[in-house]
Amino acid sequence: MKKRSMVMSLLLAASLSVPSIANAAPDQERGQETFRVYVESTGVSAKSTKQSLKKQYEPRWELSENGFSTEMNEKQFNALQKNKNIKVTKVQEVELETDVRASEYETMAGEYPTQQTPWGIKAIYNNPNQTTTSGGSGVNIAVLDTGVFTSHYDLVNTVEQCKDFTQATPLVNGACNDANGHGTHVAGSALADGGSDKAGIYGVAPDADLWAYKVLGDNGSGYSDDIAAAIRHAADQASATRTKTVINMSLGSAGQDSLITNAVNYAYSKGVLVVAAAGNSGPNQGSIGYPGALTNAIAVAALENRQQNGTYRVADFSSRGYAQTDGDYAIQQGDVEISAPGASIYSTWPGGGYNTISGTSMASPHVAGLAAKVWAANPSYSHTQLRSVLQNRAANNDILGGFGAGYGDDYASGFGFAKVN
Ligand SMILES: [Ca+2]
Ligand SMILES: [Ca+2]
Ligand SMILES: [Ca+2]
């Protein structure tokens, strides 16, 4: 395999540096271990209660008027629970929607990709001979994930923001290191641009701008308050810069989280389009995860590169919605909305190489990229108009293959496979 240039060895070396673990918890005594909580004061004196709580516990994120997240130990948590004017809850952990260990094929750093337009790109462009991609100019894609290897040849020119929401000091600007691989892979499917030499890999919308927001740790797990803060930050940045923004969340959990729900609703109210993985807990009914299951997030199911009943097939692992809503072409909580390629997806990887992995995590950025591409071409659209267009394109490409899939809107594939053409 041809080498891409000497620069790659530097990139590889950079990727091997061990990320520092910031501010490891100092509490070693039994019962003194701290954990993440959200504290909300209630009642007529909620404001002053909050002020005094903030003096005791250093706030991490203030995600509501009378609340904030912080760290405390079991003893402190139990004490606050007894106070009727304080609502204190443990912050939920959220995970990425892929098993990255299930990598099938890897191209080492420094080598050119074996495919410049992987099957998912050809499929969503509806052209088996597609050799490059285009579009997305002026639209931001905020990838809330494990970070991004922003030095990758095929991503470096797309990076506009790189921020870390997971460190002990919240919101580190200019840092978004990905030691996991998941976020780098997701970003590549959405907007890899082939690199300056145009010999690299292509995502759906290579002219879009990448906002790489690290919200999950290197083990692929993160806290819902960090994710909620990143969602709100993306929405505020979209407003401040007066630009169109698509949020991609290839992450989730079985249960609904109020911090993330409120943040998604906030972003949606600010005109941001929110796209999320449906989850990898299929194929049974009701296996869909959050935040995809929220009405204000587009839940994306994963397709395999395999035909059944004359269409692509929904992967068994792809989480399902509820059969009772089949055929209604309406979106309510718990519905799968759109399908996209998500099995055996080849994309960018930390260090500068490429890797093939599977999950609804891989399907979601195909839709985020398509959204950016359609929005850039139709800048007068509101985010709700854009969502309708994506739904219509999906309905025009009905999916019939896979457990639970059938004619029209179904709980496995949603409205269908939304394509470029
Ligand atoms: Ca949804
Ligand atoms: Ca339905
Ligand atoms: Ca169908």
Please characterize this protein's 3D structure.
The protein has 421 residues and is an alpha/beta fold. The protein has two domains: 34-91, 2-Layer Sandwich (Alpha-Beta Plaits); 95-395, Peptidase S8/S53 domain (Rossmann fold, 3-Layer(aba) Sandwich), CATH 3.40.50. The chain has helices spanning 7-16, 46-56, 74-81, 119-124, 182-191, 224-241, 258-269, 360-377, 383-395, and strands at 34-41, 67-73, 86-90, 93-96, 106-107, 139-145, 159-164, 172-173, 209-214, 221-223, 244-249, 251-252, 273-277, 298-308, 311-314, 338-341, 345-348, 354-357. Strands 6, 7, 8, 9, 11, 13, 14, 15 and 16 form a nine-stranded mixed beta sheet that branches. It has a three-stranded antiparallel beta sheet with strand order 2-1-3. Helix 5 (182-191) runs parallel beside helix 8, helix 6 runs parallel beside helix 7 and helix 8 packs across helix 9 (383-395). The chain starts with 6 loop residues before the first helix and ends in a 26-residue tail after the last helix. One calcium ion binds at residues 292-295, 297, 299, 335, 337. One calcium ion binds at residues 325-326, 328, 335, 409.
